[in-house]
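Cross-check.
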Amino acid sequence: MIRGGVLSTYVTDDDVFSELCSQWAQKKAIGVDTEFIRTNTFYPRLGLMQVFDGEKAYLVDPLKIEHWQPFISVMVESDCVFVMHAASEDLTLFQYFFNAQPRQIFDTQIAASYCGFKVNSSYQSLVEILLKKEISKEETRSNWLQRPLTSAQCQYAATDVIYLLKMQDLLTTKLKSLDRLDWASLEFKNQLLVAVDAENTERWRYLYASFKRAWTLKDYPLAFLQSLLLWREKTARSVNKPRSWIFKDADILNFVASLEVQSDKNSGSCFTMEDIEDMPQRVKKDYGSDLIAWFNNSPPEVESISRNEIFIPLNGNERRALKVCQKVVHKIAEDLGIDPSLILNKKQLSSLVRCHSSNNAGLWFESLTSWRTDIIALPLRKAMSET
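Predicted model, tokenized:
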């Protein structure tokens, strides 16, 4: 079909899809995008997948396609590069929907940022800057699960992939001229690792470490926080509902903060409804029995928490040191013509300051990637020695 000048094919047949996948596997690169809805679920609901092979855009209907293994094979077995824009959410969807990730990706948003464009530049803005073409974003919030899709939706979906390969070529040339292709490539790989790690159940045990105001809690409430967050994470995923629909952050903090230090609580104690009396009534009604069973089977244990993992606000001297470090990073970023956050963000610099305070700065510097070590390690070491 031709919609608004964009040649696209709507794919609903498994055999046709399988043949297309065989063709895509032979390509050097394909443009890929997805349309999904995530308003009332934990996981995104895939409404459409778009692929551009250099000649034609294909709109693959996930409500019709049943056999996805051919596409998964393209992802994990071929050398085909998946060119995407702002790929993080798409990769999260891939991990859930396919339980797989592409072997190689090229994220045009990340690549552009290392070329000196604004961080988080939109697809629309990059197409306009790089290719001098204007495209519409009117269908961004469409219902991608409705059928049939409108002509405007199909036009929008096809347009979202047809410029990816051209932008990849232009941005790759620019990155090579700046000697930064390795910088961007390292970030592409990190994107893939983050998407896979999101489903790592071991990581969920440390959700308490980044929870707001966790550092204010005493040991037993903190152990309870760890247990509650782990329970909520597993529950939200199992019922496919947003975390806040299960138990809001503010309510969790209020509940655990109300707990007194209970040194007599041990793994042999039996939890009852009285122990969760201060919990919001809605949570008690919907999940009270589940929580009691959870706590009795996996009681909160003070020994399982590590305060070293928890973010603690910087003190006065540390805040002053942070400002010095930020000034160093901003100066180097200005010289390179890139956003400072691409070198080191505030969270990373705060970690350096805390490590410096505990005489562990050496370990922090060892964790830097090679290109960051080359451009920032020496200036930061000098700045830290003078604070």
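The longest strand covers residues 29-37. The radius of gyration is 25 Å. Passed to J.P. for a second look.
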